[in-house]
Specification:
This protein has 4 helices and 9 strands, in the order ββαβαββαββαββ. The protein is of the alpha+beta class. The model has no long low-confidence stretch (mean pLDDT 92).
Length: 245
């Protein structure tokens, strides 16, 4: 609220329109600088341009409007949202996707530099199942998760391991799932589209470089979807589970 922008209308409905911003002409006093370099490309976080206290206010307004304006319901004034102790490094599970044709950001296009690789490991762009942003530092999970993800990417690129093609359903490396608990226990699951002997070197690297990993697993998923509940997940090193308190 308070921004003056030039927008491109994408959908024009009877009661509302949706648009994307082409140019920020003048910024609202409420706007803050996003702390993540991937903000705007990644689909993981959407409100970093607002201070956290303002985020809570406007999120509460959305809920209130859903009941009063859309639902036509009257109810007592709700208590304020209980905010998180910290808006960063709070999650205990991340699910990253490998891609043989990662998303090229506008900054990379504008920079005009030749790209070394189109391989990426990161998050889907919002609304696009086949477009992956290559993530180097994420503020959602404790920072040890960043170390694991970046080490996996570096090893894979250095050893010419194939990244998965979502459109062609080919490639070795498919998903990387990282879980952690309040007891600082960590579980890593490597999901692969095909079972190749090269997986041993990657898994051994994780064992040697990150002894803090409590539970290391791999799974071969040859289905076209990413769900693993019906797959045989194999414990490669450590305990087969992690504890939470």
């Amino acid at each position: 609220p308070g921004d003056v922008v030039q927008v491109f209308i994408q959908r024009d409905k009877k009661d509302y329109s949706t648009a994307r911003v082409l140019q920020l002409i003048s910024a609202s006093d409420l706007r803050v600088e996003p702390f993540c370099s991937h903000f705007g490309d990644c689909g993981g976080c959407k409100w970093q341009f607002l201070a956290y206290e303002q985020q809570l206010t406007y999120k509460q307004n959305i809920v209130d409007e859903a009941f009063r304006r859309i639902g036509k319901l009257e109810y007592p004034e709700p208590a304020p949202i209980l905010g998180a102790e910290t808006p960063t490094f709070y999650r205990n599970k991340m699910d990253y996707t490998f891609s043989s044709k990662r998303w090229i950001t506008q900054a990379e296009v504008d920079g005009g530099e030749e790209l070394d690789s189109r391989h990426g490991l990161g998050f889907h762009i919002r609304g696009h199942y086949d477009k992956i942003v290559d993530i180097h530092k994420c503020y959602l999970q404790p920072d040890f998760g960043n170390e694991i993800r970046n080490a996996v990417r570096e090893y894979a690129l250095a050893n010419d391991l194939t990244f998965y093609s979502i459109s062609e359903h080919t490639g070795m490396l498919r998903n990387l799932i990282i879980r952690n608990t309040g007891l600082d226990e960590w579980m890593v699951i490597l999901s692969m589209g095909e079972d190749l002997p090269e997986r041993v070197g990657l898994l051994d690297m994780l064992v040697e470089k990150f002894p803090k990993i409590t539970s290391l697993h791999y799974v071969v998923n040859e289905k076209k979807n990413e769900t693993l509940y019906d797959q045989n997940i194999i414990c490669y090193n450590g305990r087969g589970h992690i504890f939470e308190e």
